[in-house]
Amino acid sequence: TEVVLPAMKSDLLELVLSCFDGTLKDYKMEFNEGYFVDVVLVSGGYPAEYKKGFHICGIKDDNELLFHAGTKKIDFQVVSSGGRVLNVVAHGNTLDDAINKAYERINDFYFEDMFYRKDIGRRKF
């Protein structure tokens, strides 16, 4: 979902409505050019035991492709509240470009016990 929604050029509401009105078979789905990559920032220990309540540094209001998963706001601060904390999504003209942008953006974020995989998108299929 985190890479499909930004990749969609088509209107999501129109797609859903075509499901309800029986015109899905005629719906022409369009996608944006390029590649999208999603790297999930998790709490250390996830999917087993992990701690919550860590302040998350680096979140900005600049329309970046950042999906909150296990977060909540306490006293005007965003803190971790689950195992899968943030999804960092990046777009690039090539797969390598999208991968590099995602990992560069991860450097902006920090919370205690933060962990993420370093191989996302690296294995070619």
State the helical fraction: 10-25%
Distance between the termini: 20 Å
- Total strands: the figure is 6
- Please count the helical segments: 3
Low-confidence stretches: none
How many domains?
A: 2
The CATH level-2 architecture of the largest domain is identified as: Alpha-Beta Complex
CATH structural class of the largest domain:
Alpha Beta
Order of helices and strands: HHEEEEEHE
Q: What strand order characterises the main sheet?
A: 2-5-1-6
The computed structural class is alpha+beta
Provide mean pLDDT, rounded: 93
Q: Remind me, CATH topology of the largest domain?
A: Glycinamide Ribonucleotide Synthetase, Chain A, domain 4
Q: Which homologous superfamily in CATH is the superfamily of the largest domain?
A: Phosphoribosylglycinamide synthetase, C-terminal domain
Radius of gyration over C-alpha positions, nearest whole angstrom: 17 Å
Major β-sheet annotation: 4 strands, antiparallel
- Described by the principal axes of the CA atoms, the overall outline is globular
What fraction of the residues are assigned to beta strands by DSSP? Answer: 15-25%
Protein architecture, described:
A hairpin with a 2-residue loop joins strand 3 and strand 4 (77-80). The strands form 2 sheets. This protein has a 4-stranded antiparallel β-sheet. The chain has a two-stranded antiparallel sheet with strand order 3-4. It is an alpha+beta fold. It is built from 3 helices and 6 strands, in the order ααβββββαβ. 13% of the residues are buried. It is 20% helix and 25% strand. It folds into 2 domains: 1-32, no CATH class; 34-115, Alpha-Beta Complex (Glycinamide Ribonucleotide Synthetase, Chain A, domain 4).
